Amino acid sequence: MRLFYFDIRDGASVSRDTTGTRLADLEAARHEALSVLAPIAGDALPDDTPCSVTVTVRDEDRQPVFHASLALVEDWI
Amino acid sequence: MPDTNILAQKLQNAGPLDPADIARLDEVVSEPYELGPREDLITHGDDPEYVNLVVSGMVCRYKVLPDGGRAIVALMLPGDICDLHVAILGRMDHSIGTLTDCRLVKIPRRTIEDLLDNHPRIRRALFWSTLVDEAILREWLVNMGRRRSDHQMAHLFCEVHMRLSAVNEMHDALMPLTQEELGDILGISSVHAQRVLSGLRQKGLVTVQGSRVAVPDIDKLCEFAEFDGDYLHLRDTQDGT
């Protein structure tokens, strides 16, 4: 098990993970990062737009190893 | 009433008890034992001969999921009997374990039967506590399905605050829980729980020190969570009773 930190940027608000989460490996960390994008974006919708959420994963040395974003695009037609 | 035992304090929220009732409950609560965090009291399939009363600390009712995860479906706080229905239902369909350091009292089934058969006010109060447990479960169901995660977490904190206050156990810190445990209660991942907790902190609704959450202004938190504590059926919150 390795410790990973998940920093989340949600619109203008940034939360820096200081606790970390123990996970099996990098792939498990990627899976965790991807699985939180939609629920966190969902918390902000539909009130706070434009909506974009970015998760940056750092390893136990606090070095970034992965990042993923989810962005909402909307237009009147 | 600082000398009243924790079970009597909890049950008096249902209605007044006689001195004789309280004396009987004093006997029941006489020999607490201690348990560390993350210890199981009973697991799925057990057929226990006693029920557990929480004297201090926090206990949870949980189900283990096929992927090894855990869903926490109830919190038991000081004064709560963890598994009263076991005295009637027998075999456990879920597990019960501690979240924090706890003091507990084992109450034999036959004592529960005596309380039910020979003490009508206690019987009524135990029935009340079971109904309140159901009401809490209903509220958690609404919370999980219909509230945004930040409102859901704030709502949980308001509930715990009110339940602890009702037994005079609301001290400085509210919840000594990890993000993972909070996530297991709310049905979200620990990373999501961390994000939501951080949002509540940024709004000034909670303070967080290590894994301890404190609430600087409960009224403000209740307003944010749209919390209405009627479902806890505490006497002080009901009109004139």
Mean model confidence by pLDDT of chain A: 88
Query: How much helix is in the residues of chain A?
Result: 10-25%
Structural class of chain A: alpha+beta
Number of helices of chain A: 1
Catalogue the unreliable spans of chain B. 237-241
Greatest contact between two chains: A-B, 16 and 18 residues
CATH homologous superfamily of the largest domain in chain B - what is it? Jelly Rolls
Taken as a percent bin, the fraction of beta residues of chain B is 15-25%
List strands and helices in order, with pairings.
The complex is a heterodimer of chains A (77) and B (241).
Chain A: E1 2-10, E2 13-15, E3 21-23, H1 26-44, E4 52-58, E5 64-71
Antiparallel strand pairs in A: 1-2, 1-3, 1-4, 4-5
Chain B: H1 6-11, H2 19-28, E1 33-35, E2 40-42, E3 50-56, E4 59-64, E5 70-76, H3 86-89, E6 95-98, E7 102-108, H4 109-118, H5 120-146, H6 149-166, E8 175-176, H7 179-186, H8 190-202, E9 207-209, E10 212-214, H9 218-225
Antiparallel strand pairs in B: 1-7, 2-6, 3-7, 4-5, 4-6, 8-10, 9-10
Helix pairs in contact in B: 4-5, 6-8, 6-9, 7-8
Q: What would you note in describing this structure?
A:
Chain A contains one helix and five strands, in the order E-E-E-H-E-E. Chain A is an alpha+beta fold. Chain A has one domain (2-71). In chain A, strands 1, 2, 3, 4 and 5 form a five-stranded antiparallel beta sheet that branches. The longest helix of chain A is centred in the middle third of the chain and has 19 residues, at 26-44. The termini of chain A are far apart. The mean pLDDT of chain A is 88. Chain B is of the alpha+beta class and 241 residues long. Chain B folds into two domains: 1-125, Jelly Rolls; 147-241, Winged helix-like DNA-binding domain superfamily/Winged helix DNA-binding domain (Arc Repressor Mutant, subunit A, Orthogonal Bundle), CATH 1.10.10.10. Chain B has a four-stranded antiparallel beta sheet. Chain B starts with 5 loop residues before the first helix and ends in a 16-residue tail after the last helix. The A-B interface holds A 6, 8, 10, 13, 15, 17, 19, 21, 32-33, 35-36, 39-40, 43, 55 and B 148-150, 178-180, 188-192, 194-196, 198-199, 202, 211.
